[in-house]
């Protein structure tokens, strides 16, 4: 049975009764204690690392046009590696919330082998798939390698081998995400593409946040105040970002030099990235609110 969060109103008492069966409540309490210890040390959890890495590569986007020659190639590769780390950390954050959602609100049994740790499969698969796509893009750059200049046909062969490996990795990514309870949406295929994966992550995060906020509100005896406004704003900037990236790729890349186009494109990337983190923070807030409310008995 799929564990994907749904958009319909959930029945909190039913979720509690499911969790209570088969030792689910004990597992949920154990996981709750573990999460509280984790967030006592890292108040924002994995989202702290996501924000830190994102700030670094945003600065890199503005610094890359300043450098010239072969250094620009190295700058592009460095930013690509930072984007891979960003994508992996984002999936780690999302998978952790989804796993906790399954135990607390869907009655899934806690896997004793992982002890409450989120599965690393989705994060690793996203990093692998997007990494192959970045490697494909690198083959189009002017690499400061003598062999690449002397034997251009070899680079063409490597380019299409890497692209074939990328296509083969996409079904693997979809299978891993499905096993982690994240495979119920058609948009999950966007996880294989840098920047486009933000859309899918936000869709899952919004549904998870709504469920966590609703359950917390039920326990506290109040109406849920969860809002999707931040997700809508992030989606608007995401659509602009996709257009800007497409235009830059079609006319020579975002790192073509210190130009007005490059600076405007970098600004759009930065704003879209920040709006995406702000939307994730809304879901994170709902998750943390549930952590605080879960120790209280549910009110009628």
List the helices and strands and how they pair.
Blueprint: H1 12-20, H2 24-41, H3 46-63, H4 70-106, H5 121-138, H6 146-150, H7 152-179, H8 197-220, H9 229-251, H10 260-293
Number of E-type strands = 0
The largest sheet is:
none
Overall domain count = 1
**Rg value:** 21 Å
Query: Which stretches are poorly predicted, pLDDT < 50 over at least 5 residues?
Result: 1-24
Figure out the total of helices. 10
The helix content is: over 70%
Helix and strand succession? HHHHHHHHHH
End-to-end C-alpha gap: 29 Å
Categorize the overall geometry. Answer: elongated
The average pLDDT is 79
Instruction: Please identify the structural class as seen in this structure.
Output: mainly alpha
Oligomer: single chain
Which structural traits does this protein have?
single chain; 300 residues; mainly alpha; 10 helices; disordered N terminus
Summarize the structure.
The chain is mainly alpha-helical. The chain has helices at residues 12-20, 24-41, 46-63, 70-106, 121-138, 146-150, 152-179, 197-220, 229-251, 260-293. The model is unreliable at 1-24 (pLDDT under 50).
Describe the 3D structure.
The chain is an all-alpha fold and 300 residues long. It has one domain (12-293). It contains ten helices and no strands. The chain is elongated, with a radius of gyration of 21 Å. The model is unreliable at 1-24 (pLDDT under 50).
């Amino acid at each position: 049975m799929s564990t994907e969060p749904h958009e319909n109103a959930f029945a909190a008492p039913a979720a509690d009764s499911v969790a209570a069966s088969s030792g689910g409540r004990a597992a949920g309490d154990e996981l709750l204690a573990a999460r509280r210890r984790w967030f006592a040390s890292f108040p924002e959890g994995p989202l702290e690392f996501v924000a830190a890495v994102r700030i670094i590569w945003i600065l890199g986007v503005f610094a890359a046009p300043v450098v010239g020659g072969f250094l620009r190639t190295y700058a592009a590769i460095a930013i690509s590696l930072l984007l891979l780390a960003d994508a992996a950390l984002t999936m780690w954050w999302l998978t952790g919330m989804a796993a906790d959602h399954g135990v607390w609100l869907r009655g899934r049994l806690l896997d004793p082998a992982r002890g409450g740790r989120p599965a690393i499969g989705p994060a690793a698969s996203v990093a692998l798939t997007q990494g192959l796509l970045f490697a494909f893009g690198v083959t189009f750059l002017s690499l400061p390698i003598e062999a690449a200049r002397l034997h251009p046909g070899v680079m063409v062969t490597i380019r299409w081998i890497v692209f074939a490996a990328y296509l083969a990795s996409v079904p693997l990514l979809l299978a891993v995400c499905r096993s982690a309870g994240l495979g119920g949406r058609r948009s999950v295929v966007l996880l294989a593409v840098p920047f486009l994966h933000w859309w899918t992550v936000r869709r899952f995060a919004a549904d998870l946040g709504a469920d966590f906020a609703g359950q917390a509100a039920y326990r506290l005896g109040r109406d849920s105040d969860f809002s999707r406004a931040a997700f809508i704003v992030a989606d608007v900037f995401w659509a602009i970002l996709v257009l800007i990236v497409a235009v830059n790729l079609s006319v020579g890349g975002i790192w073509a030099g210190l130009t007005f186009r490059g600076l405007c494109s970098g600004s759009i990337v930065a704003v879209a990235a920040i709006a995406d983190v702000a939307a994730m923070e809304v879901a994170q807030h709902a998750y943390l609110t549930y952590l605080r409310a879960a120790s209280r008995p549910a009110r009628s």
